[in-house]
Amino acid sequence: MNELWIWEAVGVMALANLLTRIAPFLFFSRRRPPRAVIFVEENFPPIILTILIFYTLSSVDFGSAPYGLKELGGIAVTMLLHRLFDNYLISIFGGTATYMAMVQLF
Predict the structure, then answer these.
(1) Owning domain of residue 11
(2) What is the pLDDT of residues 94-105, one digit of tens each?
(3) Of the four listed, 5, 24, 41, 74, which is most buried by Cβ atoms within 10 Å?
């Protein structure tokens, strides 16, 4: 009986995932998507990076040591990697790995 809720949760998550994946095809199969949807489609990676930067810096106390150096270091590495490779996955993974290494080592 206790296992039933796990299968129900998996079913609900699978259905939600399926619906979010087929929704654009259902809504925009016969007409052009709105300009806002096209904008998000074209600019999704930079939008996500911006949200991640704001989230990262939202809880940083710049008034006390280490003054946000770990977070700013991760952001700097992310920016550098993106300038070098122009690949969002490399940028995100590299910046995250740098930040996690700095958290663990310092």
Answers:
(1) 1-31
(2) 999 999 999 999
(3) 74
